[in-house]
Please model this.
Amino acid sequence: MKILLVSSSFFPKIDGSTRCVYDHGRKLAQRGNLVYLVTRGIRGTPRSEDLDGIHIVRTPFQYRGGTLINKAALVLQQVVSILLVTRREGVAVVHAHGYTAALASLPTKYICRVPVVITTHGTELLWPKEVWWKSPVEIKLGLVFEKFVLNHCDVVIAQSKGVQDYMLKIYSTSIASKIRLIHTGVDHEKFRAPPRVEPTRKIMFVGALSEVKGVTCLINAFQRVHSEVPDSKLILVGSGPKARAYEEYARRLKLDGAVEFKGPVRDDNRLWELYSDSDIVVLPSNVGGPISVTLLEGMSMGRAVVSTNVPGGIPDVLGGGNGILVERGNESQLENTLRRLVTDNEYLLTMKERSRKAVEDKYTLDSMIDKLMTLYKELTA
Model:
């Protein structure tokens, strides 16, 4: 089958959306499908290239900043690229990741009569106001835009029941008949580590270094744990505009050597090494949304996983004892959880075993692709 993926986020940018799109595309290609990807241009990258079976087409426009003119230029160029690829290659289905990508895909639905599927990767409407980076007016306009996109796509993928619930609450039940529940999956063969009995007392965070992900809360909680368990360490993998500020903050708390900033890591082998050398994966996110790739990778590696009880997919994945949930912004609760994990080896081993089993039972990449292929065949029958 010829499948076109559309996303505004892809390598060399590194984030959860990029990893989802990459895994989605390469696994479809491994199944013998012809996979194309239309994404935005980034300085220093070729206009077209192949990556692990994905045929990538980048727009000429290099998207910089969030101005309306920039966004409109990106959408228009994506529209043209999507139409050209669809007609030239005879694409059977378009699967867009994100609202902007889906908007750019809609003309293909009406001009080429090709079904359009959307997987969303969260919305600022779920964010607490204190971490909003858009004005209330922009947020309200975004709601109108998101509703339009969802009501015109053929199928809306919800990655968990919690995601489905917040989508129906925010966007109304008018999209209920379009929603298909398909869990996000992780490559459980790639992200597999041999069991280790002796703890390293290393806590790992992977994500954007920002208050959206609760980094200050994490550093504060860890500082108190480290004062009692001096050989404990916090490993921060990721980047962001506040990265240097967090490094300075850790120094002021006298955590030099105890907190390591690794920067962004694209290479899966290096990421595997970092996961393997850690006991705990933590994501104290302040915002709700779909399932986190970081948490699934940590669970697949058999690490104890800690995150927050926010709306969406995180409680669905970690509930039932698969991981540990704390309340958003609750430093003392996060501190107590981390302290127990780095001091109680029996409890740590129990949580590690539960994590890996949950992935094997429900969240493998293969099971996700099985369901998506079934959906694509239904849409093109």
Remarks:
- The chain has a mean pLDDT of 93.
- The longest strand covers residues 54-62.
- Residues 133 and 191 are 34 Å apart (CA to CA).
- The radius of gyration is 21 Å.
